[in-house]
Write a structure and sequence with these properties.
Helix 11 packs parallel to helix 13 and helix 17 runs antiparallel to helix 18. Strands 1, 2, 3, 4, 5, 6 and 7 form a seven-stranded mixed sheet that branches. Strands 9-8-10-11-12 form a five-stranded parallel sheet. It has four domains: about 230 residues, Tetratricopeptide repeat domain (Serine Threonine Protein Phosphatase 5, Tetratricopeptide repeat, Alpha Horseshoe), CATH 1.25.40.10; about 180 residues; about 160 residues, Histidine kinase-like ATPase, C-terminal domain (Heat Shock Protein 90), CATH 3.30.565.10; about 110 residues, Response regulator (Rossmann fold, 3-Layer(aba) Sandwich). It is an alpha/beta fold and about 750 residues long. The protein is built from 26 helices and twelve strands. Strand 8, helix 22 and strand 9 form a beta-alpha-beta unit.
Length: about 750
């Protein structure tokens, strides 16, 4: 990481503190109505020059800076001389004029040594010179200049400069792969970092330590430093440190075999690279503009000098012929200056265009990687949802089988667990996608006591080696039936109770629901899940909501690290938040608050689900087109249970043949099939009989986009797995079955 340029302002701190703003009236204080002393004029001009530098007005910085230097030398104000010299030198660096910058820095150092000046000014001048060599890639020279500045900084006990110098030496040494040499300065950087309160300094100190241990092939030691650097850089808004820390962390995670964590770090680095690309583009434009203004100023200054010479010659010689020659010479020189300036400007803009092209290519590559990630998760979702459809469908049918009533409890738990697994898959996809703001809340009637009972039955199997005791307590005043998003509430409680179960051995887990109040047909509830398990260390509480991270790795159940991040996100959607308290070896308590509408028979906004009779679909012929035999069988059994006559086809072509040879009332069309997909088959079927309602079945969320682009083909679409009641409702609607 090239800290030299991005933290350049930090190196100027000893000379540039004070009021950052100066109005134009301060500059105008030299007019006839206000008489300022030379010292006051110098102080005012120093502030003005500094303001011009930080406003990227480099031509003004150099022009007014030279005048300020002249006045400061008249009154021997050495502090002002060093301050303005540093600003002028860095202004030349910003316009890529390293020759002038080097001249200014050397002149400052020579004057300081000549006058035995041992103030912070000399240290700053040497740092500036070292920065210039570092930016030019002359790392050995940069290290030499930094080391020359160290004794004076140590003598002055200047903590800020000591931190910067040791960091810069260690960074340049590691860039040159001089690990043993750099290690000494890395250790010193850490010492001075503890004395500097700025989080940006502490972030790069942790970064250089992590980088050192990575180069020493010690990834286990490197990783904590890098994670702390990321935290500090994120807190302080130091984007460049975030990029470098994430990139080194990604390499470290790869060494440790943590490929998912490596991808996370690379994605975060890409995000901040995109931000840096925009900032660098603006900086490049400002630099080009600044240099162009500087060239204009130099041309105007030279033109003015020539004009003065013309005036002198005119007064001296008083001849018309000489006037004409002088005017012609001025015109020629001025044209030459303009021509040269124009050439330089064109070169600068050409360079800027080339750099922009490189930045755009990098941005496009990053966007392509993000799209590839989205496609990957869409494919994974499809592969997981397809077998889940079979599990949920078959378990529902077994649950309705009267001969298996002795297994009803187990089948209910199986069905509940499968529904939860589907919701977990959807949340994994949601946590990794870039789309936001499209989450919809359900409004279903549910029994809170049954929901909590199902949560306990499903999670108690997670820790059968050391079984726990589950103690539910629900206030008696809480109504039996509530209206709200029961799926999200199930996910929240499943995650919290699962965590408690996995990290508690032969212990007790309490699930309490207390009623805060009831008003306006709503009930306000306080949920609490408490265990007496291993607990969470205090220093790890800050990480428990980070995706894919686990804090209790000494237990056999580590999980995905998605539980609490999912809980936090779901509660945010429900306008709530979670509170976690924990003590090691004493247990953990998690609590949150939610409110629900109370369900009554007169509820207008939400209708209770009507029951479908076994003859709801009797007399209707339904064609199922699906290449997955298990899914086809589940759909067939579900529809036959309600009296429908079923026809089946294993792909799009076979479905077309069925329509051509058999009368069909409705078609259920799978989308993703070999040979001929559902969209192609539906287009042909609509040409044969445009009145047959076709309902699209899909297990891939992304395919909804494709379906939306072909709305004339499908009367409805259903995402697999689906709820049986909702499924029959859709079928009945399009077959025009009376309620």
């Amino acid at each position: 990481m090239n800290l030299k340029l991005t933290t350049q302002a930090l190196f100027l701190i000893p000379f540039l503190w004070g009021n950052l703003c100066i109005g134009q009236t301060e500059i105008n204080a030299t007019n006839d109505s206000i008489v300022l002393s030379k010292q006051e004029r110098v102080d005012t001009l120093v502030k003005f020059v500094r303001k011009q530098f930080y406003s990227n007005n480099f031509a003004q910085t150099i022009a007014v800076g030279e005048e300020t230097l002249r006045l400061a030398k008249q009154i021997e104000d050495r502090t002002a001389i060093f301050r303005v010299s540093s600003l002028i030198g860095n202004a030349f660096l910003q316009t890529n004029d390293t020759v002038e910058a080097k001249r200014i820095f050397f002149r400052t150092i020579q004057e300081a040594e000549k006058n035995n000046d041992t103030t912070r000014s000399l240290t700053t001048a040497r740092i500036d010179l070292g920065n210039m060599y570092a930016l030019q890639g002359k790392k050995d020279l940069a290290i030499l200049k930094y080391k020359e500045a160290l004794p004076l900084a140590e003598k002055l006990k200047d903590t800020t400069h000591l931190f910067i110098l040791n960091y810069n030496i260690s960074e340049q040494s590691l860039d040159l792969n001089r690990i043993s040499e750099g290690e000494k300065y890395v250790d010193r950087t850490q010492i001075y970092a503890t004395k500097v309160k700025a989080e940006a300094y502490q972030a790069v100190a942790q970064l250089i330590s992590g980088r050192l241990h990575y180069l020493k092939k010690e990834p286990e030691i490197a990783l904590p430093f890098l994670l702390e650097s990321i935290r500090l850089a994120r807190s302080s808004g130091y984007d460049e440190a975030l990029i470098d820390a994430n990139e080194v962390a990604a390499k470290t995670q790869i060494e440790l075999g943590n490929f998912e964590d490596a991808v996370t770090h690379l994605l975060e680095a890409d995000e901040y690279k995109s931000k840096k690309y925009e900032a660098d583009k603006m900086q490049a434009l400002e630099t080009v503009t600044g240099k162009f203004k500087l060239n204009q100023y130099e041309q105007e200054l030279k033109a003015q000098t020539l004009q003065n010479e013309i005036d002198r010659q005119e007064t001296k010689r008083q001849t018309t012929i000489f006037w004409i020659k002088i005017a012609s010479g001025i015109l020629l020189l001025f044209s030459a200056f303009l021509f040269i300036s124009n050439l330089k400007r064109r070169r600068l803009f050409k360079s800027l265009v080339e750099k922009n092209k490189l930045f755009l290519e990098a941005k496009e590559e990053s966007e392509a990687q993000a799209k590839a990630k989205s496609r990957l998760f869409a494919n994974i979702t499809h592969e997981l949802r397809t077998p889940l459809y079979g599990i949920i469908g078959i378990s529902s049918q077994l649950k309705d089988d009267k001969t298996l009533t002795h297994q009803s409890e187990n089948l209910s738990s199986l069905k509940f667990s499968a529904d939860y697994l589907l919701s977990l898959i959807n949340n994994v996809l949601q946590l990794t996608t870039t789309r936001k703001g499209n989450e919809k809340l359900k409004h279903s009637v549910f029994n809170l006591r049954d929901l909590i009972d199902n949560v306990i039955k499903s999670t108690k199997f997670l820790n059968t080696t050391y079984p726990n005791t589950y103690v539910p307590h629900i206030d008696e005043v809480i109504p039996q039936l509530l209206i709200g998003d029961d799926i999200k509430l199930s996910q929240i409680l499943m995650n919290l109770v699962s965590n408690a179960s996995k990290f508690t051995h032969n212990g007790r887990i309490d699930i309490r629901v207390l009623c805060d109040r009831q008003e306006d047909n709503r009930v306000y509830l306080h949920f609490n899940v408490t265990d007496n398990g291993m607990g969470i260390p205090e220093d790890k509480l800050g990480y428990i909501f980070s995706e894919f991270s686990t804090t209790r790795s000494n237990y056999e159940h580590q999980g995905t690290g998605l539980g609490l991040p999912i809980v936090k996100k779901l509660l945010s959607l429900l306008n709530s938040h979670i509170h976690i308290s924990s003590k090691v070896n004493e247990g953990t308590s998690a609590s949150f608050k939610l409110n629900f509408e109370i369900a009554t028979e007169n509820t207008g906004a939400i209708e209770f689900q009507r029951e479908h009779s076994p003859e709801t679909l009797k007399g209707f012929r339904v064609l199922i087109v699906d290449d997955n035999r298990i899914n086809l069988l589940v759909t067939q059994k579900t529809l036959e249970k309600y009296g429908a006559t079923i026809l089946v086809a294993n792909d799009g072509r076979e479905g077309i043949h069925r329509v051509e040879t058999t009368e069909v009332d409705l078609i259920l069309m799978d989308i993703n099939m070999p040979k001929m997909n559902g969209i192609e088959a539906s287009k042909i079927i609509k040409t044969i009989n445009k009145n047959i309602p076709i309902i699209a079945l899909t297990a891939v969320e992304e395919e909804k986009i494709t379906i939306d682009a072909n709305t004339n083909l499908f009367e409805h679409f259903i995402i697999k797995p689906y709820k049986q009641h909702d499924f029959i409702e859709v079928i009945s609607k399009h077959l025009k079955v009376e309620a």
